[in-house]
Amino acid sequence: MAITLTEAAKLSTDILLAGIIETIVKDSPVLQRLPFIEVVGNGLTYNRELTLPVVAWYNENEAWGAETAPTLKKVTAGLEILGANADVDNFIKATRSNIQDVEAAVIELNAKSIRHEFEKTFIDGLGTAGAKDFAGLDALAPVHDDWAADTAYVLEDYVIATTFNGWRYEATVAGSSHATTEPTWPTTEGSTVVDEGVTWTCRRCPSIEAGTNGATLTLAFLDELIDKVLGGKPDLLLMSRRSRRKVNLLSRASGVNLQTERDEFGNFIDLYNGIPVGVSDWILDNVTQGSSDVTSSIYAFQMGEGALCGLSSPGLIQVERVGQLEGYDATRTRIKFYCGLALFSQVKLGRLYGVTD
């Protein structure tokens, strides 16, 4: 069963741990809502849903077509170690009237740093073999390169048409592309096209390109992004502060202000089409897209088992009293978060990239 950090804080009987969890989640639109599956071991291997099988209508006594199997990809998401040491000098303990206030302040600052690092990794984590982090949204909904002539492609390489058509194309037979001519791209999922030595298979694309050289954010773009997430509305729209200001401006210009509500910590939340709008300070506004170097991305996703879900060790966040530091006149409290991120279905995540204000 998946549980959010917010609910975990309510269940904790450790006052210090509950306070640390509250500090981590209260200003984070992601960690307030993201459920975590507790993993026994150091990771989780699962099948990610890429495409659904094709079905058809038949007449009586009609021969049935060949089976079209769903497309799955076996993925392993590991638990990574995120943590901080909260050290308090014994001199400070001895010369301050309230020791708990000093320790609490130091621990709170470390908890905030853990929140910041998790949120940053949630966006731009690499999750590669040499990295210590997990794969974030940029890796789970990547921006693919345009098709290029006379280029060697290996299996599972992806490209998009030089004039973006809403689909992406997977190299299912490796080889080199045509020396001069771009193929005529199919727009039916599972259809193929031969490109000299490469065979491309049409795949659903979780991303939307606003423009070859970037384009101004519009509500139409935002509506298209929401429609990228299948099986219901997204649970969160995550964007930069600049994009949030633009959405507010566009909504007011259309004569409809964004709805607002309060979360359980008393923070005001904007809602677009009934979907909470979250702000991340780690979504950059200076990404290069073609000739523009001031573009940004907006993400839409569902959360939970079967969608986008956090992974953690049993107990979620752990607090360890290390005690007296050898060689130092100080004591240490260690905060540990063994965590990861899993995307169980690609149709539960969408990305709009290349938007400007």
Word description of this protein:
The protein is an alpha+beta fold. Helix content is about 20%, strand content about 35%. It has 7 helices and 22 strands. The strands form 5 sheets. Strands 12, 13, 14, 15, 16, 17, 18, 19 and 22 form a 9-stranded mixed β-sheet that branches. It has a 5-stranded mixed β-sheet with strand order 1-2-20-21-5. Strand 16 and strand 17 (about 275-280) form a beta hairpin. Helix 1 packs antiparallel against helix 2 and helix 2 crosses helix 4. The protein starts with a strand and ends with a strand. The relative contact order is 0.19. The mean pLDDT is about 90.
Structural class determined from secondary elements: alpha+beta
- Overall geometry comes to globular
How many beta-strand segments?
A: 22
Mean pLDDT: 89
Run of helices and strands: EHHEEEEHHHEEEEEEEEHEHEEEEEEEE
How widely separated are the two ends?
Answer: 40 Å
Number of domains: 2
